[in-house]
Design brief:
By secondary structure, the chain is mostly helical. It has 2 domains: 69 residues, no CATH class; 223 residues, MetI-like fold (Orthogonal Bundle). It contains 17 helices and no strands. Helix 16 packs across helix 17. The protein starts with a helix and ends with a helix.
Amino acid sequence: MLMALVRRLTLSFLILFMVAVFVFVATEVLPGDAIDVYLSADDLAVMSDADIEEMRQRFGLDRPAWVRFWEWFSGAIFGDLGKTLIDGNDIVDLIWHPLLNSVILGAIITAFTLPTAFIIGSITGYKRGSRTDGAVSTLTLVGYSIPDFVIGNVLIILFAVWLAFFPAVILVFSNASTSELLAVSLLPALTVIIGHVAHQSRLLRAGFIETMNSEFVERARLSGLPEKWVVFRHALPASIIPMLNSLALYISGLLAGLVVVERVFGYPGLGRELIEAVARREVNVVQGITFWSASFIIFMNLLADFAIIALDPRVRSAKSA
C-alpha cells in the first residue's frame, strides 16, 4: 500500500511537470509576447527597435525559454508563482480572489450536482426499461450533449432578457463578498449543473445496472436479505465506483465549464483571469493558474482512489494480496 502511494505521488509530480512544460510551450509559440501586447500602436510608432529590445531585457524576456521556465517551475513547486511580467505584481495575490470565487461557484455546482445525479441515476437504474427511465434518460442525453456556452446563452435569453429575473452580465469585483457572489451565481451555476447532472447520473445508472446484475447482489438476495437492504447496503455503494473513477474527468470538466461560464456571464473567477492572462501574454499567470488547477485535479484523483479502495472489497483484496 505504501509503495503504491509512493508510485502515485511520483507519477503525480511527473504529470505536473509535463503539464507545466506543455502550457509553457503552448504560450511560447503564440505570436508576440507581453511587450507586443503591452505597447500600443502609438508607442510602437515612436520607439525604435533598440528601445523595444531594451524593454525585453528589462523584463527578462530576452533570456532563453528553458531558463525562464525552470526559474518559474522551481519556485512554483514551493508555492511561489512569481510576478507578472509587466507590472511586477505578485501572481498569488493577483489570482487569490478569483480562485476563491471559482471555488465558491464550484462548491455550489458540486453541492447540487452530486446529490441530484445520485437520486436520478439510482431511480433510473432501478427502474430500467420503464417509461420513467426512458424519459429521464432522453433528457439526460440531451443535457449532456449541449455545450455549456449554448446552455448559458439560452438561460440568459430566458431569465435575463425575456423574464428579467437576473442580470445578463455579472457586475461585481473579484474581491466581492460571498453574499454578493451568491446573489449572482444562480445562472452560471445552473449552466454547468445541467450538463454535469446528466453525465454523472448516466454513469451512476450504468454502474447501478451492472451492480444489480452482479453475483454478490444475487447471493445477497438468495440469502434472504430484504430488497431495500440489498439495494442500499450492497448495490448503491458499489454503484458509486464508476462515478469515483471519473472524478478526475469530472473535476477537469468542471474547471473547463467554469472557464466558459465565467467568460459568458462575466463572473470574476479564475477562468476569466486565465483568458485575460492569455490575451495579455502573461505567461507566468497562465502557468500559475494551470499549475494550481492540475494540482487540484491530481489531489482529487488520489482521494478518489482511496475512496474506491474503501468501497470496493475486490480492490482491497487486490491491494492486500
